Amino acid sequence: MISILRKGNIGNLFNWFSIIILVLFAIIAIIAPFISPYDPNAQELTARLKPPAWIDGSVSGYLLGTDNLGRDLLSRILYGSRISILIGVLAVIISGVIGAVIGLLSGYYRTVDAIMMRIADIQLAFPTILLALAIVAVLGGGMMNLIIVLGITGWVQYARVIRSEVLSMKSSDFVVAARTIGVSDGRLLFRHILPNILAPIITIATFQVASTIIAESSLSFLGLGVPINIPSWGNMLSQGQLYIGSAWWISLFPGIAIMLVVLAINILGDWIRDLFDPKSK
Amino acid sequence: MFSYILRRCIYAIFVLLGVATVAFFIARLTGDPVAIMLPPDATVEQMNHLRAQLGMDKPLVVQYGMFIWDLVHFNMGESIRYGEPTLSLITERLPATLELAGASLIIALIVAIPAGIISAIKRGTWFDRLVMSVVLIGQSMPVFWVGILLILLFSVTWRLLPTGGIGGWEHLIMPAFALGLHMMALITRLLRSSLIEALSSDYIRTARAKGLFPRKVIGKHALRNSLLPVVTIVGLQIGALLGGSVVTEVVFAWPGVGQMIIQAINNRDFALVQTAIILLAGIFVIINLIVDLLYVVIDPRIQYK
Amino acid sequence: MKSKVLAFFLIVFLVLAGCTSSKSKDNSTASSEKKRDSLVVAQASDAGTLDPQKQGKMPDMNILINMFDTLLTRDENNKLAPGLATEWKAIDDTTWQFKLRKDVKFHNGEPFNAEAVKFSIDRLNNPDTKSPIVELKTVKEVVVIDEYTVNLVTSASDPILPNKTVLFGGVMVPPNYIKEKGDDYFAQHPVGTGPYKFVSWQKDHQVVMEANPDYFRGAPKMKKLTFRVIPNLADMVAATKTGEVDIATSLTPDVATQLKSDSNVNVISTPWIRTFYMVIDTTKEGPMAKKEVRQAMNYAVNVKQIIDTVLGGHAQRVATIVPSQNFGVDKSIKPFKYNIEKAKKLLAQAGYPDGFSTEMDANNLDVDIVQAIAAELGKVGIKVKVNLMDGATLTNNIAAKKASPLYYLGNTGWTMDALSNFQSYIKSDRRYNAWKNAEADKLVDIEEQSIDSKTRLDAFSQIQKLLIDESPYLFLYQLDGLYGMSKDVEWKPNVMGVLNMYNASIK
């Protein structure tokens, strides 16, 4: 890690910004229960729709104001970081692992390719929303189910890109050379080809953590997301959008939280990609 | 080459059948449409009567057999909610969705391709940073939020554009932009990064060393290689566009297939959901066939027998 | 290179800006024209079909009521009033006789008469029609007495048959037109007797109608009526603020509050019969099987405060599950008074001094209200885990008896007779029953089978007293109908929440 840092462009403010943001949110996610001023679900019906502390009409004690049920927005955003980040990371791990294995195998073996790419086509043809609903209806709503949905629907992107990279790499000199000297298929796949295509995997994975956090909010908007009483950023944003004309803070702050984290992840992804890929230096 | 295309077409039919099968069973697993169709006052007999009318009293396997038989005869069934053939319900709304998705794709490509190329060439300059910042911020916002903010600014505050619905160009601008924003960002970033990679690769260096002009190097060699992942992503993103149109159509009251799918899901309208999936899958399969064929054109190193 | 790209962007922006500015001019002219003789109404979902006998949902009915008429209607005091029929009476236990208006023609010129009534109801009840409308299934036969008199013969006595002809089943359709053109054509080009004639329908976007100058009550004041579909409430609010929409419907209290701040919009809050309650499943073993626990729950929730805060005051407390406008409501029965001490005492009596844990199911859309109720129950030690889901899943779970011991439901008894409010819930063998009581079963039989109003009223009263004592529900409130209207629009909503626009006008 230290060597990676040393190799990177330390002077780049963007990169450090992203690291600080992510570390900050990671810490917040862990210690949310200790720093939240209120229980995120505690309602104070007499203090509904109160604006943030620096605006007229605010109620002391609510730094970022309250939502339509008089819940403290700051506490909800702090807790929300746990949920949204967890969903993003877990879903990407699931789809990344599935996608990478399938992509490598199908790029390398014709027979696997024929079957897997057909399954990939079937998978891709399904609207994510329908799959989400089906799983919610069959298994019941809940966070784990949503993570599984988002994880399952995401694998194809890895598989397709990795497969096409493998396809064009297979005819490259170093693979041909390795084969002629008798390197086994398995060794070739995981020791020689995989490291070479790490860059596209990381690029996609960063995008996907980001897009998963966003997908979570879109599903919430359609009423198919995390159960609506769990304070995920997506739920807060989609409930808050109704009040955007008057109580703008309800949707603005979770929106900013999503933006910051997604932004930071994307910048970080680019940076890591550059570090791993000596060619792009 | 011909046999390759033929093989792909057979695959496509296989995939559609697979989609239809999965769609059928998922739709059946999600619940009883009769309970939703009838008002709460309906009696048990009325419910059973309707169930029998819809053929839902038969065993699942029989229902599946009937479904596939009808499908092969292009009989996609009637919608429970609308009482009309599902195929016509969807084809009625398909133009609106294609209009929206097409406009988004065009906006995305028009902005992303030049932005990506220039950012790659002018890597590290103010232009690159500006483009990347805008792209990153755009990609960090959920479509529905972008949509609501656009409506708040352009419709409510400035009164420049209508808040929603379908009509002339002015109705299309905001939804197409909101829907295309993510794709725009994705293509810009991908094109930039793969172009940077291509530009630093050995053969480009060789070409440069040979004294070829930069524009020719970029155009003929680097761009061609960096288009491979871009084409893949565009192909895949058309599926995402069709899916993403669900959210956009709801936000902007755009009368397309996406809005109908959400209603069909809420009404547990089996036949309609199935047909929508199979049709969207058809569009998708054709596009991906084209993408695969494009590989052959773009990257001659990949050969198909 | 750079300059070329910049030029390109400039052109794109100019083109976009050009489209925008030219069209915004069109908008302003359109809106000034619109104010004179046309009206735009927005609702959250579109009609499924425009064949009035193949629909069974409010969004469909809202549009169709402007093109079609029903046998009977409701007057300003919510009393049954003449529609296409001028008189109606029960001539024996199973026969209702209707006298019809003689001056009514369908939009295609076809006359409206007893044959049309017979055709309409026969078509409605014909299994081939696959109608989701079930209310008139009690009609066994329609007998034409003369050109303008018709008898509806029911299989068993149906005391509220006239009430059922106010909406859905009571819509009259043109026999010859349907016979000639077929069902499909009729659904695409509906022809009725109503104040507006069909012009066009772009699905999920809008239905356009024009005034029917020959309407039997006189031509409507507006020349053009458009029903727009705007599924997203935030978008509907925006469209109302910009004046694209004259009347916004299906508003929630919070959204209505937002519209109040706009100087061009009036927010109308009006009584509505949609009534809400928490079903308590008494059929399973456990605390909920005890009447004291159920009473304690009713005492524990400060419904008044929830109405004033979460619902912005836009609801009326009801004693049981019958809205105050419906026939059969006993106004002498008072709702539970919030009393946390009494609730605790009752819980202790029942053997749960420290409360207990349970679960509650509800529609996502009702998240705010059910969370507030759960929080109230928490204060007496009843820890409620709230499960939120989409409406279809909730309905499915209830129908499949998989729902939690508590679930939040609403009911619109649009026949405005308590029979409809009780129908699916009170009697032991009914679909949504979660409380078995032999006495209630007997009383339901009385009010459903007798056509004597006094006998029925008495039975209704007794059922309501029993409901209070047994508390098989957590009784809540009936919502107000909330509409956002342009300042220059005049229109009075009705308690059924049907968007009948005949009397709408511009000041």
UniProtKB/TrEMBL annotation, chain A:
One Gene Ontology term, aspect cellular component: plasma membrane
Domain of life per record: Bacteria
Signal sequence segment: none
PROSITE patterns according to UniProt: ABC_TM1
InterPro entries: BP-dependent_transpt_permease, MetI-like, MetI-like_sf, OppC_N
Domain called ABC transmembrane type-1: residue spans: 81-269
Primary localisation category: membrane
Bilayer disposition of the protein: Multi-pass membrane protein
Biological-process GO terms, alphabetical: transmembrane transport
Database matches in Gene3D superfamilies: MetI-like
Keyword Transmembrane helix attached: yes
Location(s), subcellular: Cell membrane
Pfam families in UniProt: BPD_transp_1 (PF00528), OppC_N (PF12911)
Transmembrane segments: 12-35, 83-107, 119-138, 197-226, 246-269
UniProt entry keywords in alphabetical sequence: Cell membrane, Membrane, Transmembrane, Transmembrane helix, Transport
Family: Belongs to the binding-protein-dependent transport system permease family.
Designated name of the protein: ABC transporter permease
TrEMBL record, chain B:
Membrane-related topology note: Multi-pass membrane protein
Cellular compartments per GO CC: plasma membrane
Source organism (scientific name): Neobacillus novalis
Taxonomic placement: Bacteria, Bacillati, Bacillota, Bacilli, Bacillales
Transmembrane segments: 9-29, 100-121, 142-161, 173-191, 227-252, 272-298
PROSITE patterns xref list: ABC_TM1 (PS50928)
Swiss-Prot/TrEMBL GO biological process terms: transmembrane transport
Name of this chain's protein: ABC transporter permease
Subcellular location, record wording: Cell membrane
Family statement: Belongs to the binding-protein-dependent transport system permease family.
TrEMBL record, chain C:
Subcellular location: Cell membrane
Top-rank lineage group of the source organism: Bacteria
PANTHER family: OLIGOPEPTIDE-BINDING PROTEIN APPA, PERIPLASMIC BINDING COMPONENT OF ABC TRANSPORTER
Cellular component GO terms held in the UniProt record: ATP-binding cassette (ABC) transporter complex; periplasmic space
Record's keyword annotation contains DNA-binding: no
Keywords carried by this UniProt record: Signal, Transport
Stretches assigned to the Solute-binding protein family domain: 79-430
Pfam annotation, one family: SBP_bac_5
Chief localization: membrane
Name of the molecule in the record: ABC transporter substrate-binding protein
Organism listed in the record: Neobacillus novalis
Transport recorded as keyword: yes
Family: Belongs to the bacterial solute-binding protein 5 family.
Annotated GO MF terms: peptide transmembrane transporter activity
Record-level GO BP terms: peptide transport
Signal sequence residues: 1-17
Bilayer disposition of the protein: Lipid-anchor
